[in-house]
Amino acid sequence: DRALDSLIIRNCSFTNIDAECVRYYSDLDTLTADAPVFLEHITINNSATRVFFLKNSGGAVVRDIIVSNSRQSGHGRDADIMEIQGNGSTITHIDTFNVLPVPIKGTKGATVAEEFLYGIDPQYEAADSLNYTLLPNSHLYGLGSDGEAIGDLNWATNTPVTVSLTVAVVDSGSVTLSPPPIGLTYDPGTVVTLTAIPEANWEFLEWTGDLTGNNNPDSLTMDGHKSVTAIFKLMVGIDNDSALPKVFDISPNYPNPFNPSTNFNFQVPKVSVVSLVVYNILGQKVRTLANQSFEPGFYKIAWDGRNDLGSSVATGIYIYRFEAENFVKIQKMILMK
Predict the structure, then answer these.
(1) Full-model pTM
(2) Is 239 exposed, middle or buried (0-12, 13-18, 19+ CB in 10 A)?
(3) pLDDT, tens digit, 9 for 90 and up, residues 264-288
(4) Which residue, of 12, 37, 68, 237, has the fewest CB within 10 Å?
(5) What is the mean pLDDT of the chain?
(6) Domain end: 240, 255, 270, which one?
């Protein structure tokens, strides 16, 4: 046992561990801050089911972890894959493969980002030989909270060959993908069916980008990175006065907090120049998302957490400012990696 003022375990691998790979106890004093704990970019294979136990560790960060080919332990602590305790602790971007059907637990104020829990085969090069190099066709490349691979980055040495499909929507509707991506990417050659789903009083108009025409549904072969836009239009015979917005407005971004991207829905009642700009907490401009004329209608714009130069920005609080004619709305959002 050791006393310490911080614990950072990063870019490490564990194999054949029967007890927890990391077992850490903090005190019960709620008046003082707990020691910073970061467990990130870790690969765990062929080890006991409960890989981490952090007791009363407020503010701990557990992310970008692979847990694969787990087994029952010799000590009976097999009720969960990991348990993280403590107010403000976060568990996110965890990939489990061939593990026992038990949960990832956040207790005593810890939270689990369920949308970033994956069940993807890591595609190790030779796990039996303790070689956990991710093969080029691994879908874990680029899936981490920081845009890197999930797991120990010492094993993420290949150039990935998987391909991505980016879908944008103009006006009111959505698009479903079949099959869905594995994480964020597809195997090359996958045929994806895209189905445009208009909202009430709207109809699908056409596809643009790497898919063109107005067939719905339609298919696309993933022989490279692809980008598609689905365009919807107001149905003929619908009263524009009732279907189109009456005022300028922007809804709170969602999700919030977010990682890696968030969406902004806004409405424009008449032809106007719209500005949507993201700033950091110091008031410095980070990204211009819109600065152009829009027709009357409903719009959705996504922010991918990058600045105007294309670089990923840091975790923190950001401010977005929406302006159209004399209407201005300013709100906060949190990027959490």
Answers:
(1) 0.69
(2) exposed
(3) 999 999 999 999 999 998 889 999 9
(4) 237
(5) 90
(6) 240
